[in-house]
Amino acid sequence: MDTRFVASLLAIIEEGSIAAAARRSGVTASALSQRISALEAELGVTLLRREGRMVQPTHACRSVLPRLRAMLRLEQDLRADLRGQRLAGPLRVGAISTALGDWAAQLLRHLHHAAPDVDLRFVPGTSPGLMALLEAEEIDLALVVEPPLSLPKSLRFQQMFQEHVGLLRPALDSASTLPYLVYSREAWGGAICWSALTAREPNPSVLVEMDALEALAQMVEDGVGQAVLPAWRSLARHAPAARFTAWPGVYRSIGLLHRLRDQDSPFLTLVREGIGQEGGP
């Protein structure tokens, strides 16, 4: 099986169309279609279902996607070994929104310098959603809030840093009487913040609840309410005039979630070094 054809199949699935995958891969759409036809003939199954200009993987294709991705990763690792550990190929990093704002630029600079042949792709999402993508082999690792649950045996979490949790209030004399803007209690980090808030104020007046920390911080800055939030590194960018008071002993832990089999991967080491260059907040 030609791994170039497998890479083309995965590119089409990730992009959602043959035309978009062709632009990404630098080949013609007809060449990609021919590769898929050759793969389908070799495997004896239909791999893609065409819906207008868009394509979707068939059930048969979905059932083998994890092994196809593993095949490409094995080839990449072999090539890296033969090149003296020179890393190359796609690296799909999932990240929650605050981690993207804090670390994306730093990680991009590090990879451009240390591994220019790596094609870094960020995939935004929530911590639970990114864990699901990791289990489905749709991303390679994720920067998430520490899972408050027992992980599958195939996954590992490595803490990178901790963020203080505390009270963010606007610069108003009446700030203490404002209702609360709540970080969604269904979010892993939100559950920590809600527990900390209700331990101090059992029946808080809630104006809105959402899993969008940047928007919550901006609303505090605008005087809409007060919020219990983690102090991520770029919080001040969203609420420069607001006052943050850290609560002792309450933290949101952020780290790398990855597959157990990748714990010695040079890609994981690369990302860990990139994030750790300047240290946590």
Describe this structure in words.
There is one protein chain. With 281 residues, this protein is α/β, with parallel strands linked by helices. Among the domains are: 1-73, Arc Repressor Mutant, subunit A; 163-252, D-Maltodextrin-Binding Protein, domain 2, CATH 3.40.190. It contains 10 helices and 10 strands. The strands form 3 sheets. The protein has a 6-stranded mixed beta sheet, with helices on both faces. It has a two-stranded antiparallel ribbon with strand order 1-2.
CATH architecture of the domain at 163-252: 3-Layer(aba) Sandwich
The neighbouring-strand order within the major sheet is 4-3-5-10-6-9
> What is the rounded Rg?
22 Å
State the end-to-end CA separation.
Answer: 47 Å
CATH superfamily of the domain at 163-252, by name, is Periplasmic binding protein-like II
Offer a quick outline of the entry:
With 281 residues, this protein is an alpha/beta fold.
SSE blueprint:
Blueprint (H helix, E strand, L loop, with lengths): L2 H13 L2 H8 L3 H15 L4 E4 L2 E4 L1 H24 L6 E7 L1 H18 L3 E7 L2 H9 L5 E5 L9 E15 L10 E4 L4 H13 L5 E5 L2 H9 L5 E4 L4 H4 L4 E17 L6 H11 L5
Any key phrases for this structure?
281 residues; Arc Repressor Mutant, subunit A; D-Maltodextrin-Binding Protein, domain 2; six-stranded mixed sheet; two-stranded antiparallel sheet
